[in-house]
Amino acid sequence: MNWLVSRRRLWSLGKFIGLSLLCCILVVSCNNPQSGTGSSTVSTTSAGNSARLVVGTTLRPRTLDPADNYELAGSNIMTSLSDRLYTYAIGTGELEPQLATALPQVSADGLTYTIPVRQGVLFHDGTAFNAEAMAFSLNRFIQNGGKPASLLSDVVDSVQASGEYELTIRLKNAFAAFPSLLAFSGLCAVSPQAYEIGTGKFKPREFVGTGPYRLVQFTPNLIRMDVFNEYWGEKPANQGIDFQILSSSANLFNSFRTGQVDIAYQTFDPEQVQSLKQQAESQGWQALEEQSNVVTHLGLNAKQQPLDNPVVRQAIAAMIDRPLITKRVYQEQAEPLYSMIPNTFDSYQPVFQSTYGDGNVDQAKALLAQAGFTRENPLSLEIAYPAYSLTREQVASTLQEYGSQRLDGVVQIQTKAEEGATFFANISKGIYQAVLLDWYPDFGDADNYIHPFLSCTEGSATAGCEQGASQSQGLFYYSDRMNQLIDQQRQEQNPQTREQLFVQIQELIAQDVPAIPLVQNKDYAFGQQTVQGLQVDPILKLPLWNIAKGTKG
Predict the structure, then answer these.
(1) With left for phi above 0 and alpha for psi between -120 and 50, is residue 283 left, alpha or beta?
(2) Which CATH architecture group holds 294-522?
(3) Cα–Cα dist 429/156, whole Å
(4) Which terminus of the chain is more exposed, N or C, with fewer CB under 10 A?
């Protein structure tokens, strides 16, 4: 998912604003079968007094309309409310059918996907699911023009029901990762009786899908979902979910410590994570630490002098000290990343480690000297980041301090904090020399870490990228060879051959250095003693339907 949208914001790090205890909230929700906000309920969000799971988070969804949501906050909710054609086997990253009954049949040219869909499925409003309903959902995603619409519109030519329980999708160009894309949370089935197709026709406060839960309340501070009794699959292990949305990481921290929430997930600052981990054994808490598929890069503008010289970009790559960054900024709550593809993929190659190492001062100085930079003529580099991100501010400051202390004045780094909207509006304009960027992927395929950064539809080696992903992300990197490799891996159906293409792509990145991978984050969730089956998945995040709530042992 593009970092130009708010889902691409890694957590905003709040300051402690004092102890804030949550009050019990009486919830009365109206019965509206057309909107999927079912039966009237009176409950409390106090974790200790409810048989329901209370999940505390600071992520506030803008919308729950799958055709317009492009933020992590909404996706975390929709994953529990919806079904897609495909999902992932928890803990494996392997694709498996959900509303489909089998993996697609793909034509020899890689353009036509024929997918059998499940029978006996109902939407939350009682409407029967079939291939026509799935086609409606995907066409609505494309035609309503929401934030994520281009994910499908860029690759899909047509979607139609070719039988009552058979879907046929025709692509514009072959795309080997297409089944993985179909597992994206926004590509879920929604009821044709509850939604419309038409530009801008969104329902941000409603959700009528086929998932194991149905939405019963959506307010700024509380989202409630009940178990959907007519669900076609295995019923959830709990009696419902209350998402308690808190105003800051400090409030989330205190709410968990005082037992007001059963599970605390996204987001804490590093000090809070460390504190909860240290107290877990004595307090009987569950503290889960898992690898995340979220990465942070330093993007370099290959169109601006002197970064238009690949030798200068290589010198910057050599000076980066990832272990220092993970220790000083992340308190070891991230790990060094040596490729734009994270190490959760088999195709991962630590090319920046083998080519440059970490904090390779001698190599950096030699490359800078080759490019004409010395203490008398230092390289001036400005690194920009969104002002709301304390983490990226600290990364930029660490790089600035490191350059000053270790490189003897050959590199002079300045940092530039920009208001968030301004920062993301300016990236594609080529205003910044270098930018710190966080990346949450849309789907579980290595292509989603490469194509959105490095592909270019119009440009040249001399002019740089003038139109395409690389331009829109502020890299302005153009390479005929990279474009060829990206196209080849997107068309290649053989997994082993495709993996070798990704190896070549990573080697070319290490040579050209359009961006420098910095860290791969870790994901944390904390649960009370009564929570059973808590786990964190790199792709599905919190599979809440598997979590039960028992009694304190």
Answers:
(1) alpha
(2) Roll (3.10)
(3) 28
(4) C
Q: What is the CA radius of gyration of the chain?
A: 24
In 3D, which of 543, 522, 450, 60 has the Cα closest to residue 294?
Answer: 522
In this predicted structure, the answer to whether residue 400 has a pLDDT above a threshold of 90 is yes
Average pLDDT, stretch 81-96? 92
Phi, psi of 439 (to 5 degrees): -135, 115
What are the strands, taking DSSP E only, across 363-463? Answer: 379-386, 411-418, 434-439, 458-460
Provide the pLDDT for residue 39.
34
Tokens of 110: 């890689």
Rounded Cα distance between 26 and 326, Å, is 43
Name the nearest CA neighbour of 277 among 524, 518, 11, 470.
524
The residue among 145, 254, 153 whose CA lies nearest residue 202 is 145
The amino acid that residue 471 corresponds to is Q
Closest CA to 392 of 447, 443, 436, 340: 436
What are the CA-CA distances from residue 403 to residues 222, 318, 362 (Å)? 46, 12, 13
| pLDDT digits 0-9 by tens, 329-381 | 999 999 999 999 999 899 999 999 999 999 999 999 999 999 999 999 999 99
Which pairs count as long-range contacts for 251-256, CB under 8 Å and 24+ apart, including other chains? Answer: 251/14, 251/17, 251/20, 251/58, 252/56, 252/57, 252/58, 254/19, 254/20, 254/21, 255/20, 255/21, 255/22, 255/56, 256/56, 256/285, 256/526, 256/528
| Strand locations in 263-378 (E) | 263-265, 286-300, 334-336
Q: What are phi and psi of 487, to 5 degrees?
A: -65, -40
Homologous superfamily (CATH) for 6-285+528-549? Periplasmic binding protein-like II (3.40.190.10)
Question: Is pLDDT of 417 > 70?
Answer: yes
Tokens read off for 44: 């409390």
The continuous run of DSSP H or E covering 32 comes out as none
> What residue ranges do the domains of the chain occupy?
6-285+528-549, 294-522
β-bridge partners, 112: 170
Residue linked to tokens 């980041």: 385
Q: Note the pLDDT tens digit of each residue in 183-225.
A: 999 999 999 999 999 999 999 999 999 999 999 999 999 999 9
